[in-house]
Write a structure and sequence with these properties.
Helix content of chain B: 25-40%
Number of helices of chain A: 11
Shape of chain B: globular
Number of strands of chain A: 4
Radius of gyration of chain B: 17 Å
Number of domains of chain B: 1
Largest sheet of chain B: 6 strands, mixed
Distance between the termini of chain B: 34 Å
CATH class of chain B: Alpha Beta
Oligomer: heterodimer
Shape of chain A: globular
Distance between the termini of chain A: 54 Å
Largest sheet of chain A: 2 strands, antiparallel
Strand content of chain A: under 5%
Order of helices and strands of chain A: HHHHEEEHHHHEHHH
Strand order of the largest sheet of chain A: 1-4
Number of strands of chain B: 10
CATH topology of chain B: Rossmann fold
Structural class of chain A: mainly alpha
CATH architecture of chain B: 3-Layer(aba) Sandwich
Number of helices of chain B: 10
Helix content of chain A: over 70%
Largest interface: A-B, 19 and 27 residues
Chain lengths: ~290, ~230
């Protein structure tokens, strides 16, 4: 029993990382109907930013997090402006291919840049690990802090989307772009902000990933991004709650699966994806919409 | 107030709107009537900036050229557009829809505006927290009009407000349009229900295949033999 709770906490820790990353996928998909395969690469650059912030300022979790989040957010925004905006009025296929291109570009450019390079770097220890024993369950300070920060970010995002002007504009644009423009919403600005927020959360995901698996290289983005994308699809792409719950669920499932056999962890991801797509093609929380005319 | 000159809207090689010119004076209700595909909606979408206009076209609002600026800027200049098919935000509540209408304004005046549209549409007040998609067609049209009223431009464009609605509700909607005129708004109305549109309009233009084929005071257009045969079922 204790073992199960222990795994559950570990799963929540991993799941909160997935949730942070899958939110970006789902938000961008919701607003521009684009599966942004470059999303994972934003978090990779965020993780490297955290690496250099800690090199300059010491192992300060908050500073590293902020640095990574802002860097990822800005890169997401920049990629929208430079790559996605010019093809926005083109058929969807153009932006899909553009996203693949942006992803390859970021990864290979990073590999060539001297301060990132092809050799993996050790991620700094940002949280001093203390172990607490509560009722025979061992919890680490890393786990507690990560889960709390992730929850705060998720709560903040939900609040922004549901209760603020920019959040309403984001929802409106994802529902009906023309009608939003007629309300005076600046569509391009709203899309850019959505990219920023998605990248911002991914940056936190990147730092958390580095804390959990303390070696970073240029490909961590595609690995984590892949899993987070599947989590977003399982939750129902375009649906914020779906992405959060899908992310956490997949984290927990992965940990349990790995505890049974270390090799099947990622395989389980795809298995669940296939099962969900067969029985609930729109994901757990998504709705198949019929256009009402 | 609104001056459209040589407006052309192209869809690839096809000219959806072909070199039309018309004006709407302050305080008037002007209607554009015509069959499906005549170019009515394209004209309206061009005015509010949703459709790109071809070279040589000019759209002036109070003397200022607005032909090539973004839709959200045109809203700020005082044109609001009640689009075809209502286009309310289905998964937002009635109140949130109205808050979207208020997007370009501060929230300080919003309660007053809300009170005003709710007194005009008591049905919407009852459904304040209900999602837009759960409203009936007539209620959705009311919400679309209320939303545009909250946006609050001096010029209101209506695109087929009667579409898919029962005759009684159509009458309500048209009396509200008339009321907006009495409040000093200028209205450009597009309708397939030519009879209703001509009965409240001051002037009318008849569109056919992207061209204006007839124009004049609404009563004259209504009396025209050709119009009666084509649009009024006489």
């Amino acid at each position: 029993m204790n073992n199960i709770i222990q795994l559950l906490i570990y799963g929540l820790q991993l799941g909160s990382v997935y949730a942070l990353v899958s939110l970006g996928y789902t938000m961008v998909y919701g607003i521009v109907r684009l599966i942004n395969s470059a999303h994972g690469d934003y978090l990779m650059l965020g993780a490297y930013t955290a690496f250099y912030v800690s090199l300059l300022n010491g192992n300060n979790l908050i500073l590293c997090l902020l640095g990574a989040m802002i860097a990822s957010g800005l890169i997401a925004m920049l990629s929208d402006q430079l790559a996605f905006k010019p093809v926005r009025e083109q058929p969807k296929f153009s932006s899909l291919v553009t996203a693949l291109g942006v992803s390859l570009f970021i990864q290979n450019l990073s590999r060539a840049l001297p301060f990132i390079g092809p050799i993996p770097k050790p991620f700094p220890t940002l949280i001093t690990k203390k172990l607490y024993n509560i009722l025979d369950i061992t919890v680490s300070s890393t786990q507690i802090l990560m889960i709390i920060i992730a929850l705060i970010l998720l709560f903040l995002l939900t609040y922004i989307v549901n209760n603020t002007k920019i959040g309403r504009a984001m929802r409106a644009v994802s529902l009906d772009r023309d009608a939003s423009a007629l309300m005076g919403v600046d569509i391009n600005k709203t899309i850019t902000i959505t990219f920023f927020i998605g990248g911002f959360l991914a940056g936190a995901g990147g730092v958390f990933y580095g804390i959990m698996y303390p070696t970073i290289d240029v490909s961590i983005g595609s690995l984590l991004g892949n899993k987070a994308f599947i989590a977003a699809v399982i939750g129902g792409i375009g649906n914020l709650n779906g992405a959060m719950i899908g992310g956490i669920l997949m984290g927990v499932i992965e940990i349990f699966a790995t505890s049974i056999n270390a090799d099947i962890g990622f395989g389980v991801f795809y298995l669940i994806l296939i099962i969900i797509l067969i029985f609930k093609p729109a994901g757990l929380f998504g709705k198949l919409t019929n256009e009402k005319v | 107030m609104l001056e459209v000159n040589h407006l052309t809207v192209k869809y690839g090689a096809i000219r959806g709107v072909d070199d039309i010119s018309f004006t709407v004076n302050k305080g008037e209700i002007v209607t554009l009537i015509g069959a499906n595909g005549a170019g009515k909606t394209s004209t309206l979408r061009a005015i509010s900036g949703l459709n790109k206009i071809a070279q040589g076209s000019s759209i002036k609002l109070n003397g200022e050229e607005i032909g090539n600026i973004a839709p959200h800027k045109i809203v700020e200049k005082g044109i609001c557009h009640v689009p075809e098919g209502r286009r309310i935000f289905y998964t937002m509540s009635v109140r949130e829809n109205l808050m979207m209408g208020n997007y370009i304004h501060g929230m300080s005046d919003f309660p007053k505006k809300l009170e005003r549209v709710y007194s005009l549409f008591p049905r919407l007040k009852e459904r304040d927290k209900q999602l837009g998609g759960t409203l009936s067609g007539g209620e959705q049209q009311m919400l679309a009009i209320a939303r545009a009223m909250v946006t609050g431009g001096d010029m209101v464009l209506f695109d087929e407000p009667s579409m898919g609605l029962a005759p009684l509700i159509i009458r309500d909607i048209f009396s509200i349009i008339k009321e907006l005129q009495c409040e000093g708004k200028t209205i450009l109305l597009i309708e397939q229900n030519a009879n209703m549109a001509l009965s409240i309009a001051d002037r009318a233009y008849v569109l056919e295949n992207g061209r204006i084929v007839l124009s004049g005071p609404a009563a004259e257009v209504k009396a025209d033999k050709q119009v009666q045969r084509s649009y009024l079922g006489a």
